[in-house]
Amino acid sequence: MGRNNKNFRENGKQYEQRAVAFLEKKGYQILENNFYSHYGEIDIIAKEKETVVFVEVKFRSNTKNGTAVEAVTKQKQQRLIKTAQYYLYCHAEYYETPCRFDVIAFENQTIRHLENAFEVE
Length: 121
Fold this sequence. Notes:
There is one protein chain. The chain has 121 residues and is α+β, with helices and mostly antiparallel strands. The protein has 2 helices and 5 strands, in the order αβββαββ. The chain has helices at residues 5-25, 74-90; strands at 29-37, 40-48, 51-60, 99-107, 110-118. A hairpin with a 2-residue loop joins β2 and β3 (51-60).
């Protein structure tokens, strides 16, 4: 049986809100939530000091199908990179700003923040 997509999206939004609160507590400035392009979506775009941070939020209630971090596959990374490039194209004020990709992973009740989780190749 398939999962209920509405409940899954609502659950995802709750985790994204928790991730926003977590980042704000660490001093990040949230620039945008759920930035969409035809390449894909970036859950959170934030600024930490002088760095623009593109954040992917993942959650897993158990790890039988892999960890939350493992869900950010090479294919997903490529979509995030293209979406980030489009964001920078649309926001010229950040075009020369250092950028990085982070992952915030929720597994059970644990939160992991992987800074610079992957690089543009």
